[in-house]
Specification:
With 391 residues, the chain is mainly α. Helix content is 70%, strand content 3%.
Length: 391
């Protein structure tokens, strides 16, 4: 009997390095279509639906949207934490010489957008959104640069990946210190006890990475109730999982490999779908030219590349580091623009920055449009650079 569906095409797509970025893009498009259709109220009702368990001692009943933003995204941050630790132990952040350029460029690429945003919003009710244009979306940025294949130096992809990882670490610290409220010391003490248990397991060289996840669930619960954003628990747990700098696969690498597909193909697209159901209104379009919209747009599209290029120039001038192998300044500009794809992390920080639904919607729209523009411009510049180099 002839097969009606060729499953190999589907399997090949899921194995593709671009699959996550494509699914993320599709999730955004579908969410925007539904949000501006008669199905919008039904979608919002689903996201507002309460799930979980609650009694006098345990409080775990939240909306589906909150479970996505605080629960599923904790798994995303767990994977980010694993990537950061692996890079520190054996990758692009493992030595001062290797780490100096992406670390310093990430700092510049975070500081300049924040300064630009604050210059437009200081003293206003939207000033708290200064962290929004600081972030880079690893999944989208790497998906775009992977589309260029071998047209650009391999060192450039490594540089962007390391820069984006450091950028995420900066965003995590910003969330922990500036976007958390009402600290409950008792819950923090409970979370600290959980961390001590995980550190003891690490010292005992327990090699099964999944054994670290059970205490991690309790740490997530305690941090969630402490006032610090719950996703930080994912990073803390990641830092306790053993790894090494040898060719033998470590527990950290096993867990990271297990998480890559669920996170990129499921969790991030779900987050995007749930958080970009924006019903477009005239006032929101006008909001693109407000101090909020301009602060985000200028921060991502100008602040990111300016901060990265400026720091790269200073590092080279002061002989602290060199540009990535076979890369030129046009390449650095292209990478700087790709770093302006803020999407996932920028939307996440926007949700923490404002209480006003109008401000959140305006911020999301500005992030979407600017991230798309940054990605297209970055791709065009890098593609043009490759053509010029080959001619």
């Amino acid at each position: 009997m002839q097969k009606l569906i060729n499953l190999h095409v589907f399997k090949d797509f899921l194995r593709s390095s671009n699959a996550g970025g494509i699914l993320l893009f599709l999730a955004v498009i579908v969410s925007l279509i539904l949000a501006n259709s008669p199905l919008a109220p039904a979608l919002q009702n689903i996201l507002d639906h309460q799930l979980g368990f609650e009694n006098e001692s345990i409080h775990l009943r939240y909306s589906i949207l909150l479970w996505i933003n605080d629960g599923l995204m904790a798994i995303f941050f767990l994977m980010v934490g694993l990537e950061i630790k692996r890079e520190i132990v054996e990758g692009e952040l493992s030595s001062p010489k290797k780490a100096s350029l992406p670390i310093l460029c990430a700092i510049g690429g975070a500081a300049v957008p924040a300064i630009l945003y604050l210059s437009l919003n200081a003293g206003s009710e939207t000033s708290s959104g200064w962290g929004i244009p600081m972030a880079t979306d690893i999944a989208f940025a790497l998906a775009v640069i992977n589309l260029l294949g071998n047209r650009i130096p391999a060192s450039l992809k490594i540089f962007l990946a390391a820069l984006a990882i450091v950028d995420d670490l900066i965003a995590i610290l910003v969330i922990a210190f500036f976007y958390s409220s009402g600290i409950e010391t008792t819950y923090l003490i409970y979370a600290a006890i959980g961390m001590i248990v995980l550190l003891a397991m690490n010292r005992m060289n327990i090699q099964n990475p999944y054994l670290y996840l059970l205490p991690g669930v309790f740490i997530w619960y305690f941090i969630h109730h402490s006032g610090i954003h719950a996703t930080i628990a994912g990073v803390l747990v990641a830092m306790t999982i053993p790894t090494n700098d040898t060719d033998v696969e470590s527990p950290l690498e096993r867990l990271e490999h297990a998480l890559v597909k669920p996170v990129n193909l499921l969790i991030i697209p779900i987050f995007a779908f749930a958080n970009t159901n924006i019903t477009l209104e005239n006032t929101m379009i006008q909001g693109l030219t407000s101090s909020l919209g301009l602060g985000i747009a200028l921060g991502l599209i100008l602040g990111k590349p300016i901060g990265i290029i400026l720091i790269a120039f200073l590092c080279r001038k002061l002989k602290l580091s060199e540009l990535p192998e076979n890369a030129n300044w046009r390449h650095i500009l292209g990478v700087g623009l790709l770093a302006g794809i803020g999407f996932t992390m920028s939307i996440f920080i926007a949700l923490l920055s404002f209480e006003s639904e109008t401000h959140i919607a305006e911020a999301k729209l500005a992030i979407l449009i600017t991230s798309l523009l940054a990605g297209v411009l970055g791709f065009i510049i890098l593609r043009a650079s490759s053509v010029k180099n080959q001619s």
